[in-house]
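Q: Got a minute? One more chain.
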Amino acid sequence: MLNTGSPFPLGATLSPNGVNFALVAPNAEAVELCLFDGTGQHEQQRIRLPACTDGVCHGLLPSGRAGLVYGFRVHGPWAPHAGQRFNSARVLLDPYAREIVGTYDGSDLFLGHDAADPYQRNTRDNGAVALKARVAAAGNGPAAPGHARIAAGDRVLYELHVRGQTRLHPGVPAALRGTYAGLAEPVVLDHLQHLGVTTLSLMPVQHRADEQRLLAMGLSNYWGYNTIGWFAPEARYWSGRAGTTPASEFRAMADAVHARGMELVIDVVYNHSAETDEFGPTLSLRGIDNALYYHLRADDRALYANWAGCGNCLNLAEPRVLQLVMDSLRHWTLELGVDGFRFDLAPVLGRGASGDFDPRAPFFAAVAQDPVLSRTLLIAEPWDIGPGGYRLGEFPPGWLEWNDRYRDTQRGFWLRQGRDGATGLGDFAHRFTASSAQFAHHGRAPTASVNFITAHDGFTLRDLLSYEQKHNLANGENNRDGHAHNLGNNCGIEGPSDDPAVQAERSRLQRALLAVLLLSQGTPMLLAGDELGHSQQGNNNAYCQDNETTWLAWIGAHDPASEAARLSAFVARLIALRREAPALRSTRWWPAETAHGAPGIRWLRPVGGPMQEADWNGGTALAIHFESAAKGEGDWLVLVNAGPEAVSFALPAGSWHCRVATDPALDPGAALQAPQAGTVKVPRSSLWIARR
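A: Always. Here it is, folded:
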């Protein structure tokens, strides 16, 4: 029997009195709690929740204990054109589930509608196969409140996939490869700490369900942008060791990251759910209260707004949906030890019923006033496919944003000279100093710009320089998916090459792009594996490739003579140089003009003297002189040459000492020698960084 219990907290809450269940379903006629055996396959009991308070159905099960497997059957009208899709033949997953039992296999049993007629209810019962929740035992206790522990100017992000980072790592025990525990292994964190990374940015780790289309092809949504359990760590990344759960292993991994003095950020997907469009499965929200949880089209409420491109959009303009998201974020922060979040397709989170984006939307206001979440690191992917979907620079103060214009500008400047799409010095300088046109407003700092050359979505750095065309046939979409054209440079040969000249040119460009990324003002983000020369064989949309295509190859990475080890050492030197030079990681905007001798930044022509207006149109070479205000700090000089020939630079007065040169022929031997006669020749496609 169930007692009345309490309408809060939502979800299943374990206490000495039993388990309290509370589900938001204001439009339901009734909600039944369904209890299953430990496997989740056999339904043992159905009990109607006895009370409903302010749209929350609730009840207390005195006999409930940790480990209990349960789901809900929600009764109500089947009226798709009115936005209602209740179907009591469906067992539904608690949106607040901390641990999830079962796997979505793409079968018709998961459909709420009839497979032959999407407007008719599917009356076949799916209790044996439906996703269910397991009542979680008491956790490790609250973590320290989430906060950005790394100073904004010191932060270096590293985007990685939990599985791909260690699946092939020879230093990780075989049973732990590809898991949260594997990521916590000392040999893995040693590598990241040696690089100088401060902040691990994990691709989605919330419980997902793969798309039916991928399952039919024997593939999976490897990237994980298809969430169905916003409180539950993805069990596929759990080692399964006795005495652990996905949540406890994730928390232990977070603690290991924190013990190294690093931050942990997770990529979260609150813009849509794994239930996809009107033809998708009924797993949870759709069957609980479709009209509440989703943005429905005004012209036909059987259809969904699709600003995410994934079939549906969560409606955060609804207070109860906003509560779900906020409670989830606090859970990951307080219980699982996360320090921040990267929000996938973040404009969706700020769209109201009209579809317009508002940086003062309820979600942004709720985060800003929350005593826990306001202190976390907040990063937006500032675009979606909705109306006016590109919103770079429009998120609230305190937020960081992925800056794709930085990516495109640097690729155009370094890789397209002499070709269509080439970028001039003016655009290069603007992005090098953190894109003030987008971010220098409302008190926002240069660090709001998350600079990147590559990310999970697109070519790896090695492939950017090796392939002119995408090679995505393994994805099963006839190579139609992914970006159509590579704004890169394959050095004249498509794919891998044994030609030493081609290899040298790719190495030169690789190092130049890494250097400019790590020396630019803003917050740099490295893609995992770029420091090793990882290749996906030209696949620029490897979202469904859970195999050697995406798993990082570590063989030889710790052999000092290997290319991977040399490249990693170079990245570590760049990050160390960034730490050494405050001017290169300034959290203040440089003034537009600086008098000679005054602290600031000066833009110089290679022959000497300040850049003139005409010099900014086109061009491939310039010197950037950072004049320091702090005694003993020293001035810094960055010499940039993206052209096809070496360029001689006249150096500003003083004794300059080269700290890093990207040309492999100059590093680390001659590059560390002081220049002579007040000039230095910088080879093609190279940077030269010096200190006075």
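A: The domain at 592-691 is CATH 2.60.40.1180 (Immunoglobulin-like).
Q: Perfect, thanks.
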